[in-house]
Amino acid sequence: MTEQKPVTDAAAQKVPALPDAQTVTEVQHYTDRLFRFRCTRPASLRFRSGEFVMIGLMGDPHPETGKQKPLLRAYSIASPAWDEELEFYSIKVQDGPLTSKLQHLKEGDEIILRPKPVGTLVHDALLPGKRLWFFATGTGIAPFASLIREPETYERYDQIILTHTCREVAELTYGRELVDSVRADEMLAEVIGENFADKLVYYPTTTREESPKMGRVTDLLRSGEIFRDLGIEGMSAETDRAMVCGSMGLNTDLKEILEGFGLKEGANSEPAEYVVEKAFVG
Ligand SMILES: Cc1cc2nc3c(=O)[nH]c(=O)nc-3n(C[C@H](O)[C@H](O)[C@H](O)COP(=O)(O)OP(=O)(O)OC[C@H]3O[C@@H](n4cnc5c(N)ncnc54)[C@H](O)[C@@H]3O)c2cc1C
């Protein structure tokens, strides 16, 4: 009788290669709701800083056929176009089909990445201006994490203001650490010029937990408090450009506020003064 191979055989356990698979190189958790990870980048993937792609994992096997289908979701690429790896900043939704699994990623695991980047939060969708505002809530900071590491951002504008609003202070950590690392980045300083970091203004706010600046960015804009804090007169269609990435509610409110300042919505095909993208659907 031939001896049965033990089921623990490494070959039997090896997961079949995923389609469009990329390997996770780093994982960092911030809170029980937020984490970031980096992965390899397909050599053929070209994208513009600020765009998003579809990423995911294989779904559970079908109860009858046992077949598995990819479970994909839209994700902003948080790393800049020049980076040799890709970075993503993710929510953990406990009963979310994808993120209930994605949150357990470890270095060496594989993810699926469909290499078709798209999106409106790109420089091409805005007309030239002097000041660029990034308005983010929660994971909506992801496309701006890409754009504040993009030299073109500093070449195009005299001032870049990143506002990030979260409920709690710990949810601001990713953005704060990123801004610190960008300001200290010697390569960016070499490419753009010594004083590039002076152009980047960071304006974090919280809505629930006590912090030095509290409130929704929409309220701070309506009351003019943000302008007083930053020593800015206000916004105008001549000088100001804006990119918005948050919940549906934030996006709708900000559109109204920006239009009130005379800014018009742009698109890849028709650049104007501001652009908007949903940070998630729901
Ligand atoms: C253009 C675009 C870009 C996106 N970029 C990112 C990104 O960079 N990082 C990221 O984490 N997600 C991003 N999302 C959301 C993402 O596609 C998924 O919805 C998210 O990963 C949760 O997937 P899920 O399958 O676990 O749950 P889903 O079934 O997709 O979502 C369940 C519920 O969780 C809530 N939810 C989903 N995503 C978020 C979120 N990011 N923040 C707060 N609440 C959320 C919503 O209420 C939603 O109805 C993006 C969505 C779009 C449309």
From TrEMBL:
Domain FAD-binding FR-type: 17-124
Pfam families registered for this protein in UniProt: NAD_binding_1 (PF00175)
Cofactor needs: FAD
GO molecular function, one term: ferredoxin-NADP+ reductase activity
EC number: 1.18.1.2
SUPFAM superfamilies: Ferredoxin reductase-like, C-terminal NADP-linked domain (SSF52343), Riboflavin synthase domain-like (SSF63380)
Keyword Nucleotide-binding set for record: yes
Gene3D superfamilies in UniProt: Nucleotide-binding domain of ferredoxin-NADP reductase (FNR) module, Translation factors
Key words, A-Z: FAD, Flavoprotein, NADP, Nucleotide-binding, Oxidoreductase
Catalytically driven reaction(s): 2 reduced [2Fe-2S]-[ferredoxin] + NADP(+) + H(+) = 2 oxidized [2Fe-2S]-[ferredoxin] + NADPH
Family, as annotated: Belongs to the ferredoxin--NADP reductase type 1 family.
Name of the protein described by the UniProt record: ferredoxin--NADP(+) reductase
Lineage: Bacteria, Pseudomonadati, Pseudomonadota, Alphaproteobacteria, Rhodobacterales
